[in-house]
Amino acid sequence: MTKSEIFENICRKKSFLCIGLDTDVRKIPSFLCNDIFAFNKAIIDATADLCVAYKPNLAFYESEGLRGWEALEQTVNYIRTNYPEQFIIADAKRGDIGNTADMYAHVFFEKMPFDALTVAPYMGEDSVVPFLEFQNKWVILLALTSNSGAEDFQFFENKNGNFLFEEVIIKSLKWGNTDNMMYVVGATNAEMLSRIRKIVPHHFLLVPGVGAQGGSLQEVAKYGINSQCGLLVNSSRQILYADNGKNFAAAARANAVEIQKEMEDLLKDKNLI
Amino acid sequence: MTKSEIFENICRKKSFLCIGLDTDVRKIPSFLCNDIFAFNKAIIDATADLCVAYKPNLAFYESEGLRGWEALEQTVNYIRTNYPEQFIIADAKRGDIGNTADMYAHVFFEKMPFDALTVAPYMGEDSVVPFLEFQNKWVILLALTSNSGAEDFQFFENKNGNFLFEEVIIKSLKWGNTDNMMYVVGATNAEMLSRIRKIVPHHFLLVPGVGAQGGSLQEVAKYGINSQCGLLVNSSRQILYADNGKNFAAAARANAVEIQKEMEDLLKDKNLI
Description:
2 copies of one chain form a homodimer.
Chain A: H1 3-13, E1 17-21, H2 36-47, E2 53-56, H3 58-62, H4 65-82, E3 87-94, H5 98-111, E4 116-119, E5 138-144, H6 150-153, H7 164-172, E6 181-185, H8 190-199, E7 205-207, H9 217-224, E8 231-235, H10 237-240, H11 248-269
Parallel strand pairs in A: 1-2, 1-8, 2-3, 3-4, 4-5, 5-6, 6-7, 7-8
């Protein structure tokens, strides 16, 4: 999917919502009998008109072994077939040496129809560039994450006052461009979002941490929005686990509608729609 | 497995070899008809008396989808059942927020009988500590890797002249100890290995990069060996793909014997055996 297509979807749907399919079998309604795909399908059908992206976090699927992988494949194929406009992100946080990165690229971009993959930067260039060689596919590089441990190393500072997460962005600009690379920037640190926008004014940012983790959508939009929106804001638990009974999909939709409405207002404020 | 047990195995086998089961279906002998487990089993049976650890790199298994995961489970169970003294490392390079890390810990330490898991440090403390809560299980944290991209961020330097990989080790010393944490330190930079030994004189280090990637076993031992050996040196391609025909397992053994002999001499030089 191209950057213009993502922006067109945002304008059409009046939403820059990404729904994180962090499907935890322990939290889905009991009447579904642990059927991960059935849960995902219901959530997707209830929300697809309100969001522009879905992001399964692979840990939730891998932790279920073979049936987890099957559910992941079913989910991704279901989205691709029924909602072809959706941008599908494999939240894999992979990062390994070249030949291994090639293999992961083959799995996520060829065997499965993902549009993008999250990648951890620690191992550097040769762990990232193999993913950039696929037409219309994207790397979403971890820069500043939304968890408490982000403080430990991402704020490691060099003598010029640059933080590691800034160095990650600056260096990676030589590897990719605005059409094949995005960055993960947590919503929990809006001030840093503003610093990041100065380095990458035109890139899309994938923003987790709104909602359950405490980040504010208003703040994220204030510091992060650009002329093509440039934001995919993720929400997972708030939507997936809105209700634990028969009504779960309608409750998920209601919460997604609330977020979409807020996003619509923000897009109007910025004259993007 | 405890640290003393690892050292006892090293003394008994006169080897600190770890064999990387980076099994690439494109490279295994054709008469095996892409049977990953059959290949692994033959390699394991041919080498188990010469090494103290096996390390499947998960990318190679995940890239084969469901049958890859099945082969991984079969392989780990086979080693655990037939060679219970082996230290089994899941080379997963995972690193994700707390609840996700919990899930991975459950998969690799409970569902599958791995002893250790490699973890990427970028997301900090809460992406690492969930793995440390399992008795006699280990985190092997990426510090200085052996690939060319290691230069990109791992050598990011603060105003005190500390590199990021040193900061990773220093900070993580508050999370784990010599009985539940090791570090990945590539063989391709022996000088840095000596700097790392000053910070963690008593920890075990997992050392990739000897052989195919150009690192020297002599140099690694010179700078890295401690009073309990403190090294697991990994070799993958040199052993796995020693021969591409009917004779592949015997050829793998021959190469492993060569490495084991060199290790035996080094252990004797240091008066450890």
